[in-house]
Amino acid sequence: MPKEARPRPKLEGVASAERVLTVLTAFQRGDDALELTELARRTDLVKSTIMRLCISLEKFGLIERLDDGRYRLGVEAARIGSVYQQSFALEERVVPVLERLAAESMETASFYIRRGNQRLCLFRADSPYPLRMNVRPGDMRPMDRSAIAQVLATFGDRVDPAAAPELPLYTSGITDPHVASLAMPIFGAGRRLIGALALSGPSSRLSTERAGLLAPRLRDAAERLSVELGAQM
Fold first, then answer.
1. How confident is the model at residue 132, as a pLDDT?
2. Cβ 189 vs Cβ 28: under 8 Å
3. Model confidence over 135-150: pLDDT tens digits?
4. What is the rounded CA–CA span in Å between residue 162 and residue 157?
5. What distance in Å separates the CA atoms of residue 79 and residue 144, rounded to the nearest whole number?
6. Cα 22 from chain centroid?
7. What is the reported pLDDT for 52?
8. Which pTM does this prediction carry?
């Protein structure tokens, strides 16, 4: 006989934790940084309480205090958001894009995310050619000067559109002397970087000239994928 599910005990939340979360969830889409006065208005908490709560949030990287006294969400909030987005059908969104790119370009299409000082190949669709990249999903590569690593490093922090490099980025012979890559950033809600969409292949085949021909296709795929993942382009 299957065991009956036990009813959950009726427990109350922790008031201090609820106050912390009240401050954290006060930030809304479109916010950059908020004045202490605005946080007080949104949370109905007194300013001194908000300041103490923000000290704790800063320790965990969830909130950053700017030099002018305003507060914004920190990098840890972005990381948690990216984990959520990855678990929220990210594979279902990304893999079909990779498969189309690989079929149309005849090169290997891949999706990378950053993990500290390395980059992780999360998904991949192989080139139909026998001569192709041998990186598999789950493999780690260094954060070097390759196009993929540059995209992850450059757009991991918010970039002024006017200062953004020309995309997609192309490099040849960086991680491997015989491999070239073409890469685009993929954004989610709030223009937070989710990962890098890339085409990779032998340098002899994925030349500068051919990369130029494939660039519009990769750019279009990246922009459409970003929109599907919540970015406002």
1. 73
2. no
3. 888 888 999 999 999 9
4. 14
5. 21
6. 25
7. 94
8. 0.63
